[in-house]
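ENTRY TYPE: paired fold submission
RECORD: A
CONTENT: sequence, then C-alpha cells
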Amino acid sequence: MALSGIQIYKLLPQTNCKDCGFPTCLAFAMKLAAKQVELAACPHVSEESAAKLSAASQPPVRPLTIKANGNELKVGAETVLFRHEKKFVNHPGLFLRVYADESPDAIKAKVQPADEFVVDYVGMDLTMDGFAVQANGNGGDFPAAVRAVREVSHRPLILIGGVEDLKAGLAELAEGERPLLCCATADNWQEMAALAKENNAVLAAEASTVDGMVDLTEKLKGAGIKDIVLSPTQRSLKGTLVANTISRRMALKKNFRPLGYPIISYPGDWGDPARELVAAGQAIAKYGSFVVMDHFAPETAYPLLVLRENIYTDPQKPIQVTPGIYEINDPSPEDPLLVTTNFSITYFSVANEVEGSGNSAWMLVTDAEGMSVLTAWAAGKFDAERIAKDAIRFGAPDKVSNKRIVLPGHTAVLSGELEEELPDWKVMVGPREAVDIPSYMKNVLN
C-alpha cells in the first residue's frame, strides 16, 4: 500500500536541513509520495525508516536499462497516465527486427541503414534505439544472425527465441552487454529465469491474459528476477491498447506491483508496413516501452521519432536553445545581426532559412523563457530592453561592426524603443515569416 505524504513525513528526520534540495521535510515527503524524487536524496533517514519507505520511494513502473558497447536504453519509471499531468520519464525504444533464417548479408543490409540513420530535429539527434533478433520455425542460424547484427551495430539488442536459441545468442555478446530476452511463458519460466539471472539480462514475461501476466511476474520475482518486461500476446490495435492500458492503469492508479513493469509491443507482427506504422504510433502513445518493427525507411522512422519526442517533451516547458549569439555561414563583422527568441522551433526555422540561402549572418537568440516571438512579446518577455541587454551581454558590439540589427516582422512596434536602447545601431524590421528571410537578405540587406 502506498504511503501518503503525511505518513512519509512521520518517518523522516523532520530537521528541515534542506540537504535534499527542498525547504522542508514535509515538502520532500509530498514529492516522495508523488513518486517525483527518490528516497536517496535524504542523507539523514534512518535505516529503519528507509526500509519502511523503500516501497513508497519506488516508482510504480519499475525503471530498467538494457545496454551494449556504451549504448543504453532506459525505460520505465513512469508515474502518470497522461502527459499533461507530468512529463513522461523515459522514451520508448524503437527496434528493428531481423530473423535467424535470413542470410548474414541480408541481415547486415537491413541493419546498417537503420543503425546509421540520424536526423537533427530542433537540435536533437533522433535515431533508432536497437535491434531485435528472432529465431523462428524456418530454421536458420541464430548465433550467426546475432553476429551479423554486431558486425554493423553496437546498439542494444532484444533476443527472441527458445531457451537454447537464447543461450547460443548470448554467447555471441560482448562482456557487459545487457539484452532483453523474450520471452518467459507459463511453460518455460524456470529455465528462462535461470538464463536471465546467469547473464544479468532483462526478461520479458508473455501471457495472453492479465491474470496470466500477474501469475507469471510473481513467479519470476520469486525466482529472483527483478527487471521484467510485460509482453501481452495481443497484436490487434484494440487488443494491444486494452492490454497496455489495463496494465499501466493498475500499476499507476492502484500501485499494483505485479503489473508495474515496462511493456513490449510488436507492430512488426502486422506484416504490412502501413499498418505497422499505425500500430507503432499507438504503441508509442499508449505505454509501449519497447516497440519492435519489421520494416525501416527514413520516411517512416522520422515521423515516429518526432511523435515520440513530442509526447515525451515536458508539456509545461517548451523546447529551448541556449541564449547567445550564433554564427550562420561563417559571418564577417559586416554581416547583419538577426534577432529571435530561444524557442527552438523559431530558432531553427530562421537558422535553416539563412543557412540554406547561402547568406551569412549573426543571430541573437534572446532569453524569452522558451516562448515563440509573438507569444513572448505578448507576455512581456521579448521587448526592446531585453533585446538590448542580451545584445550587450553576448558581445554584439565586438562582433558586428556595421551595427545593423534586424527585428522579426511581427514585432516592428519595438523598433522605436530599440533605437533608444541601442542609439549607435541601425534598427531594421525583417519579414514576418522565416520563409521570406532569404529574399529579404538578398534584396534589402545586401
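RECORD: B
CONTENT: sequence, then C-alpha cells
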Amino acid sequence: MRVDVAFTIADVPDPVPDGVHAIVIDVVRAMSVVAHALKHGAAGVRPVADVAEARERAAASGALLGGERGGLALEGFDLGNSPGHYDAARCAGRGVILTTSNGTRAVEAVTSAASIWGAGFVNAEATVRGVLAERGGVAACERAVGDELVAGDVLIVCAGSGDRAAADDIAAAGCLVGSFALLGGASGTDAARTAVALFDTWRSDLLGLARRSLSGRKLATIGLGADLELCATVDTLPVAARLDDDGVFRQVSLGP
C-alpha cells in the first residue's frame, strides 16, 4: 500500500484514481469539529460547500446548522466552527449541517474516491484503523517506478487555508502517514515523506506549530485562538468519521 499527500486542494488529481481511498484533513477546524460532534453523539455531520444550500438543508431536516466564513459564525447559524461548542448537550441525537471555507470544499474535491474520511490530529489513529479495515481485502499489485496511486492506496488531502498550504494540515498528514506505516506497512510518496518530516520536527509542540501556522494566526486575529488547544492534540478522540453514500460523515465502529 502506498500513501500520498496533496498539500492543497489544487493538488488533488481529477478524478481520484479508481479504488483509492481519500482522507480529508482540516485541523483548524472543520474535521476537528466533525470528530467532536460524532464523539458527543451527533447522528451525522453533512459537509456542504454552499451557505445557501446549508441553510436550506438545515431548515428542511431540523438539523443543527454550523460553520463559518472568514473564521466567524454566520448570522442565523446555531454554531460556528469551534470544536468545543459541539458538545453532547447540543449534538446528542441531532444531525449537523456544516459549511466551512476549506474543509467542505476539500470533501467535494475527492467525491470520486473509493471512500472518504475526515481527520485531524485528534482522531488520527482511529482514522487509519478505519481505512485499513475498509481496504483489508485489496490485493497487492506490481508497481512501476514513481508515485502513482492504484486501487487500495490512500490519498491524504490537506484542506489548507484559502488556496494556500497550511502547516498544521501537512503535519497532521505526516502523523497519519506514520500510523499507516506502523499499522499497515505502508510506504509513502515524496510528498508523504515531507509531511512526516514536518510532523517529526514539531511533534513535541504541535500547539506551537498550530499557533504559528497561517490558519492559527488567522484565528488569533479574530479572538478564537483558544480553539487550537482542542485541535492540536493527537488521538484524543477514538472516532473514525467516514462519509456515507448520502454524503454524511458517520462514526464507524472499530470493533473491540
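NOTES ON RECORD B: DSSP finds ten helices and ten strands in the chain. The beta strands are 2-6, 21-25, 44-47, 64-67, 95-99, 115-119, 154-158, 187-188, 240-243, 249-252.
STATUS: closed
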